[in-house]
Specification:
- Helices cover about 40% and strands about 15% of the residues.
- It is α/β, with parallel strands linked by helices and about 160 residues long.
- The protein has a single domain, classed as Endonuclease, Chain A.
- The chain binds zinc ion (ZN).
């Protein structure tokens, strides 16, 4: 792709996503939950969707999703103007894969939490901690499926 097709912010987000692991929001989640006493495995290929964090003791997994690549309905996602068909195919396939992974994991009795990148982007350290508290509370609870996102982070 020519370098002028996307703006710098989008490009840096894409590069982080291409690297695929150890992205900043994922590190925030790992560190925050580790600090709260949770122990987990990373990127288990044996599980549908290769979840980012796996908590066998809690029969729970966490996905940390970038808003661009996973087509989040939030202010951080906009369809790129150039090559619309390419992006619809690419991101559409990611959305479909996420949905299928969630269904497969739930069918196998895993609890599934999705934490979106927008939970942390542009938020204060207090909001980061509030979101990590929410994630910890979810892990200790019994909810089968939930998500944490920027516009409900800090709401309580
Ligand atoms: Zn988002």
């Amino acid at each position: 792709m020519p370098p002028d097709v996307v703006d710098a912010a989008t490009r840096s987000r894409m590069m982080a996503a291409i690297k695929g692991r150890d992205t900043k929001p994922e590190m925030t989640v790992r560190r925050g939950l580790h600090r709260r006493g949770f122990r987990f495995r990373l990127h288990d290929r044996a599980l549908a969707g290769r979840p980012d964090l796996i908590f066998p003791r809690y029969r729970a997994v966490i996905f940390v999703h970038g808003c661009f690549w996973h087509g989040h309905d939030c202010p951080f996602f906009r369809w790129p103007k150039s090559r619309p068909e390419f992006w619809r195919g690419k991101i559409g396939a990611n959305i479909e894969r996420d949905r299928a992974a969630g269904t497969a994991l739930r069918a196998a009795d895993w609890r599934v939490l999705t934490i979106w990148e927008c939970t942390f982007r542009g938020k204060t350290p207090e909001q980061h901690e509030a979101a990590l508290d929410d994630a910890a509370a979810w892990l200790s609870g019994s909810s089968g499926e939930a998500e944490i996102r920027g516009d409900n982070n800090g709401a309580g």
